[in-house]
Amino acid sequence: MINFNADKTLNAAATFWFLVAVLGQWIFVIYIAAFYGSAAVGGNFEKWNKVLPNGYVDGDPIYNLALATHLSLAFTMHFFGPLQLIPQLRSYAPTFHRWNGRIYIATAFIISLAGLYLTWTKVPFGGDRINITINAIAIMVCAAMAYRYARAYNFKAHRRWAIRLFLVVAGVWFFRIGLMFWLAVNKGPVGFDMQSFQGPFLTFLGLAQTFLPLAVLELYFRAQDSSISIAKWFVSIIIFLFTIMMGIGIFAASMAMWIPRI
């Protein structure tokens, strides 16, 4: 009975995290479509510069195309990505799952390459090229591994790499909600300068956007494979706490950045 309750709690914690994450990502998707999409449809690309320090650049069509590709694919990744992780959809619509997965993996490579081009041709706000590059490489590695294990019909390994891909693809999203969580709990910037957008906290957050979600996921996988109830309870608590922090960040980001621009 104890083992059953521990397993049930661990599954509940993971489900709770997934639902909150999907809600937050779909709010982000609506924002991308409403702000960037509407500006593009209306031909008002300069509007992007109200949000992006290195947004639309007059006279640089290659850069602008890369940016438009990156934004449009971000919409695709954050909207369709969560659908890959719904087990009922995998069971009842396997054809959709396979084709959506192929598109998702191909998109992951394209969005990473576009992101690298944008990062290394224009200095990003705060100059954090290294952490952005690390995230892009992590996306491509996870995408390649997910594809490899799917082709090998090793679906347990494929599923785990697909979840890792889902997390690292959301690196920019994690950065935003992590920043807004930090600003909300501290009632202002602590550990960095808002004008230059540099400081030790942002350096930490730049690494955390990729590695912190992966670390929590690895704890979840180990607890899932373990027969020790206390390990399952411990990881469940970590996931619940991580979800609450994520929820605060999502709410703060939605109210301060996304919803006002929709």
Summarize the structure.
This protein is mainly alpha-helical. It has one domain.
Question: What do these coordinates show?
Answer:
The chain crosses the membrane at residues 12-41, 61-80, 101-120, 132-150, 162-185, 197-221, 233-259. This is DUF2306 domain-containing protein. It holds the Pfam family DUF2306. The chain has 262 residues and is mostly helical. It has one domain. The chain contains nine helices and no strands. It has helices at 2-41, 61-80, 87-92, 94-121, 129-151, 155-169, 171-186, 200-225, 229-258. Helix 2 runs antiparallel to helix 4. The longest helix has 40 residues, at 2-41. It is globular. The model has no long low-confidence stretch (mean pLDDT 88).
Q: How does the helix and strand content classify structurally?
A: mainly alpha
Q: Please describe the biggest sheet, giving its number of strands, its sense, and whether it closes into a barrel.
A: none
Number of domains: 1
Q: Proportion of β residues? A: under 5%
* Tally of DSSP helical segments: 9
Compute the CA-based radius of gyration.
Answer: 19 Å
Q: Please trace the helix and strand order, writing H or E for each element.
A: HHHHHHHHH
Relative helix content: over 70%
Q: What is the average per-residue confidence, as pLDDT, rounded to a whole number?
A: 88
Number of strands: 0
Question: What separation lies between the terminal Cα atoms?
Answer: 48 Å
Which oligomeric state applies? single chain
Low-confidence stretches: none
Shape: globular
